[in-house]
Amino acid sequence: MKIALIGATGMAGSRILEELVSRGNYVKAIARDTHKVADTERVLTENIDLNDHEALVDALKGQDAVISAVRFQGLDANALIEAIRDSKVKRYVVVGGAGSLHVPNQNVRVMDTPDFPEAYKAEAEGAANFLDKLKEVDDLDWTFISPSAEFGPGKRTGEFRLGKDELLVGEEGSKISTEDFAVALADELEHNNHVQQRFTVGY
């Protein structure tokens, strides 16, 4: 597949890039500054500001899928979705947040619980708003993937659970490594099991 990865230099994006390339995909790595990523036979880097609509649309054209792994705080959701529409790429996968997931067996979002860290509120609200906008989109084959509460670099085990709208909690709490999250995302691109849906991944 030919895949455009927006936010290819970030914590999640860099692991997703690695996973996609390991599976034989060709990746267009897009970021404001891509100096951390080397051009190879399967990776083409492009420095693009997301506010530059024309440049972004041009970069996305001709790809089989688009992935965005960018911060939601300060992101113009409508402009990004519009750029993907204008590029004529139908498949769109979003690295989401855990805050909009529901607490297990409760009708309350994680971000609305009393002990949710204030420092993460704006980002969580941005992610939740982005998901709400996607739910109104019927002309893109979108998927929004929420990680578990603890999301950071770790091991690639290839062993994890998938859920829908409830936070997954295991023996050691709610966790997923960026490496295993990348596996779940790449699997979704290959199998399209959650088109126009959100799902979550955790141990």
Continuous helix count: 5
- Structural class label: alpha/beta
Radius of gyration: 16 Å
Provide the domain count: 1
Describe the largest sheet. 8 strands, mixed
Q: Tell me the helix content.
A: 25-40%
Tally of strands? 10
CATH homologous superfamily heading = NAD(P)-binding Rossmann-like Domain
Distance between the termini: 28 Å
Pattern of helices and strands: EHEEHEHEHEEEEHE
Mean pLDDT: 97
Strand content: 15-25%
Assign the CATH topology: Rossmann fold
- Quick one: overall form? globular
Question: Could you describe the 3D structure shown?
Answer:
This protein has 203 residues and is α/β, with parallel strands linked by helices. It has a single domain (2-202), classed as NAD(P)-binding Rossmann-like Domain (Rossmann fold, 3-Layer(aba) Sandwich). Helix content is 29%, strand content 23%. It has 5 helices and 10 strands. It has an 8-stranded mixed β-sheet with strand order 3-2-1-4-5-6-10-8, covered by helices on one side. Strands 7-9 form a two-stranded parallel ribbon. Helix 1 crosses helix 5 and helix 2 (53-60) packs across helix 3 (77-87). It is globular, with a radius of gyration of 16 Å. The mean pLDDT is 97.
